[in-house]
């Protein structure tokens, strides 16, 4: 591994080692750039992943304080944990369940396709689907996505067979075990999935793609990566010309450090990315870095989610098999006759027993709750993944009343659901309930909206600098050598789980940064 001097101003400094940052670090080091990768979390491995759910959650999850507000159910049901992502080398690709679908072409033209919907801030993407598709192909190859290239689909679990039977009763046609970034055969030096389940605790087989054991070791092998763990970025500095010059971070010993930089790329997951830009306000940029448009932190999207559980007479053992390996894609269309814009995907899901009552079931103790828990073996599960619409007031701000370990304001996450979001959830819950009822479920239970796992759009790309924070390559409109390299840059959420798109965009961005460095632009 490289040791890059704090005063070396030729380095690219990347904040966050997850889907965006880990992939970017690999791509840049592979092309010969020296990269300092700053990661707040510790480094785990397939050997150290705990398989005890509560312990695994504590080992991997970002648990630093945040606050929340707004009318979304999460503010009521999960006040202490409004969003769920990781703080560990590999970021949330350690926790994730690896569903890796593409957005559809019309989802990149949301403003044109849906029209002018009141109380939204919809825009079209500043790049075409055809342009994005070139990088989807590379990302799918890199991540070993099933049903793409020559990677077979994953086998059907019992949970999937129940979903499939219900979907067919309703006449759905596009039902399969998904495009998963999980090896169905040995690939890229990693083992294949043994269908043991509990993917969220970290995949002991290494079958699930994670930057922890793919991109980051590959970047280290180039000799150009300096990974600094347990290091938290607190501020980005700039010079009098406005270009960024250094990153301030607290290191693993609690000491403040200043790493000089030629380029800074922020990939801290959409909440912390927006927060870091806001924390970096200065006399030149009083509202935060890259924020002359006042769009940093706004338009926060998290995709419409929710659980639907079907309880049957006979055991299903839903936890056996890859957690999310099943999808019905028929509702991922834009059909305004359903009463809303945009679409949703119906995805397979299961939760381990301690997590189910914590995030998957409506709160309430007593006989009925106990009955559901007693029927855990007979429970089948599905999950909604739908488009939510951007609103300027749904935003990340700094809460100066609550401070973190560095004495800095924490992020407040404010969400008021749009009627369109509520209509999507209602429609999806109805269809999914019918699927289970049509094949004889004894009972259907609708879960609450869980903490947000898909955090997006808080520093969005835009053709017009007044509408967003970056150009089509994630380069800040205001500052040429500052890049955003995670889900923050998505202009709209679409209905596809976002990580494949994040990786595709970062692969494209890495090419662009390399060209700009060669040309001396940055
Ligand atoms: C339980 C769960 C299941 C999921 N399943 C899926 C799925 O099936 N499909 C899908 O597409 N997506 C899924 N996701 C979402 C997916 O994991 C994210 O979309 C993706 O990882 C986001 O990538 P990122 O680079 O933006 O951030 P992350 O991967 O979260 O990485 C961000 C990293 O930045 C670090 N960081 C943040 N701030 C700082 C700072 N100031 N200084 C230093 N480091 C910092 C964090 O510690 C973290 O390691 C899931 C998420 C969860 C929680
Ligand atoms: S089910 Fe497959 S992908 Fe999930 S943790 Fe087990 S081996 Fe890994």
Explain what you see.
With 522 residues, the protein is α/β, with parallel strands linked by helices. It has 2 domains: 1-49 and 86-96 and 101-145 and 210-301 and 456-522, FAD/NAD(P)-binding domain, CATH 3.50.50; 148-205 and 305-386 and 417-451, Cholesterol Oxidase, domain 2 (2-Layer Sandwich). It has 12 helices and 17 strands. It has helices at residues 19-30, 53-60, 73-77, 110-114, 129-143, 158-169, 215-221, 269-279, 355-360, 367-374, 419-438, 499-518, and strands at residues 12-15, 35-38, 67-69, 175-176, 225-228, 232-238, 244-250, 256-260, 263-266, 307-311, 327-328, 344-348, 379-386, 395-403, 409-414, 443-446, 482-484. A 6-stranded antiparallel β-sheet has the order 4-11-12-13-10-16, covered by helices on one side. It has a 5-stranded parallel β-sheet with strand order 5-2-1-9-17. A hairpin with a 5-residue loop joins strand 6 and strand 7 (244-250). Helix 1 runs parallel beside helix 12 (499-518) and helix 6 (158-169) packs across helix 11. The chain is globular, with a radius of gyration of 22 Å. The two termini are 25 Å apart. The model has no long low-confidence stretch (mean pLDDT 97). Residues 182, 193-199, 203, 205, 207-208, 322 line the site of iron/sulfur cluster.
Topology:
Layout: E1 12-15, H1 19-30, E2 35-38, H2 53-60, E3 67-69, H3 73-77, H4 110-114, H5 129-143, H6 158-169, E4 175-176, H7 215-221, E5 225-228, E6 232-238, E7 244-250, E8 256-260, E9 263-266, H8 269-279, E10 307-311, E11 327-328, E12 344-348, H9 355-360, H10 367-374, E13 379-386, E14 395-403, E15 409-414, H11 419-438, E16 443-446, E17 482-484, H12 499-518
């Amino acid at each position: 591994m490289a040791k890059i001097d704090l005063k070396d101003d030729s380095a690219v400094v990347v904040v966050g080692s997850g889907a965006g940052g880990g992939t970017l670090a690999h791509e840049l080091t592979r092309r010969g750039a020296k990269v300092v990768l700053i990661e707040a979390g510790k480094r785990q491995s397939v050997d150290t992943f705990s398989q005890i759910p509560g312990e695994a959650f504590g080992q991997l999850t970002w648990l630093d304080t945040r606050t929340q507000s707004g009318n979304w159910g999460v503010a009521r049901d999960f006040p202490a944990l409004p969003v769920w992502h990781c703080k560990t080398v590999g970021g949330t690709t350690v926790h994730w369940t690896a569903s890796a679908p593409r957005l559809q072409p019309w989802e990149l033209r949301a403003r044109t396709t849906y029209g002018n919907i009141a109380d939204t801030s919809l825009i079209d993407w500043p790049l075409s689907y055809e342009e994005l598709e070139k990088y989807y192909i590379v990302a799918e190859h890199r991540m070993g996505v099933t049903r793409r290239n020559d990677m077979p689909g994953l086998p059907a679990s019992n949970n999937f067979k129940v979903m499939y039977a219900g979907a067919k009763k309703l006449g759905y046609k596009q039902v399969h075990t998904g495009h998963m970034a999980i090896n169905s055969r040995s690939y890229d030096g990693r083992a294949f999935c043994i269908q043991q389940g509990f993917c969220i605790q970290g995949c002991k087989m290494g079958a699930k793609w994670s930057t922890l054991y793919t991109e980051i070791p590959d970047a280290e092998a180039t000799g150009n990566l300096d990974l600094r763990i347990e290091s938290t970025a607190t501020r980005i500095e700039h010079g009098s010309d406005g270009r960024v010059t250094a990153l301030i971070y607290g290191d693993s010993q609690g000491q403040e450090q200043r790493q000089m930089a030629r380029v800074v790329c922020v990939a801290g997951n959409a909440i912390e990315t927006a927060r870091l830009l806001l924390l970096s306000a200065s006399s030149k940029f009083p509202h935060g870095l890259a924020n002359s448009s006042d769009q940093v932190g706004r338009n926060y999207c998290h995709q419409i989610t929710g659980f639907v559980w079907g309880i049957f007479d006979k055991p299903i053992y839903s936890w056996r098999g890859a957690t999310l390996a099943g999808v019905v894609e028929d509702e991922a269309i834009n059909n305004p006759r359903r009463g809303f814009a945009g679409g949703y995907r119906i995805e397979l899901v299961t939760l381990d027993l301690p997590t189910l009552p914590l995030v998957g079931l409506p709160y309430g103790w007593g006989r009925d709750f106990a009955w559901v828990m007693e029927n855990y073996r007979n429970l089948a599960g599905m999950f909604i993944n739908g488009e939510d619409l951007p609103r300027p007031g749904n935003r990340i701000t700094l809460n100066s009343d609550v401070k973190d370990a560095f004495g800095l304001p924490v992020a407040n996450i404010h969400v008021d659901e749009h009627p369109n979001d509520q209509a999507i959830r209602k429609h999806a819950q109805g269809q999914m309930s019918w699927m289970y009822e049509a094949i004889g479920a004894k009972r259907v239970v609708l879960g609450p909206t869980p903490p947000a796992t898909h955090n997006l759009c808080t520093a969005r790309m835009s053709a017009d600098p007044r509408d967003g924070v970056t150009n089509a390559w994630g380069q800040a409109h205001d500052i040429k050598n500052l890049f955003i390299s995670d889900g923050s840059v998505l202009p709209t959420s679409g209905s596809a789980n976002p990580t494949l798109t994040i990786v595709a965009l970062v692969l494209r961005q890495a090419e662009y940064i390399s060209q700009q460095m060669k040309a001396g632009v940055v």
